[in-house]
Amino acid sequence: MRYKIELAYNGSNYAGWQIQPNAPTVQDALDRALSTIANTPIETMGCGRTDAGVHAKYFVAHFDGSENLPADLGHRLNKMLPADIKIFAVAPCADDFHARFDATLREYEYHIQDGKDPFAPKTFWWYAHSLNIETMNHCAALLVGQHDFSAFCKGEAPNNNPLCTVFKAEWTTMGNGYCFTIQANRFLRNMVRAIVGTLVDVGLDKISEGEFQQIFANGNRSDAGNSVPAEGLFLTKVEYP
User: Fold this and answer.
1) Top-level CATH class of 105-239?
2) Rounded to whole angstroms, how far apart are CA atoms 194 and 179?
3) Which of 220, 228, 121 is nearest to 180 (CA)?
4) How many other CB atoms are found less than 10 A from the CB of residue 89?
5) Where are the domains of the chain?
6) Which of 105, 99, 104, 84 is CA-nearest to residue 5?
7) Which residues are the active-site residues?
8) Which CATH class name applies to 2-92?
9) What is the pLDDT of residues 49-82, one digit of tens each?
């Protein structure tokens, strides 16, 4: 029987979602807890792979298990898992549901603060500079639609396919800084952090709107800006048909 599991996590203490040798990951913690409760090995499949230090306000996974799993499975998981992982819901789903391949939209947010917050470490990038949000949004608008995102991809694109369809890319100001929101059907490795780093260069007037457009069109990662730190990045939404 297949189950859908919805969760959130603070990625500060993890080497990302996916299981890795000799490193703590969210998937490993979840699989261990599920396997203990079910008294049999269980492996989850996540909706994507978050890098080390990246957070998820909303994440979806699926797993196959017995029909006799406890009705209060979510409650039991929350008691077993570390405080930085929270289960929202666990419920049976269609046998062919796939958390990764069935997703039609994913949304990320990147948070920048211009002041320190000692009570929320590693949940934003502290960057004490003013940014030109208007110019950054002009460039962000160029990302909307289906494009080749090789300029913002670390390494080779999965399946040699650099095309992504972006539905939204927008900067907003907050009382203590800035937030970048981007929605797409898929994301390449390190794509959001590379986009943010390049748009920050735009906001600092290091590169012009025309230069950003040329970087995007040329598709060379070495021409784009640096990847920003992982701690400011959150997966915030995953949608299915």
Assistant:
1) alpha beta
2) 15
3) 228
4) 12
5) 2-92, 105-239
6) 99
7) 51
8) alpha beta
9) 999 999 999 999 999 999 999 999 999 999 999 9
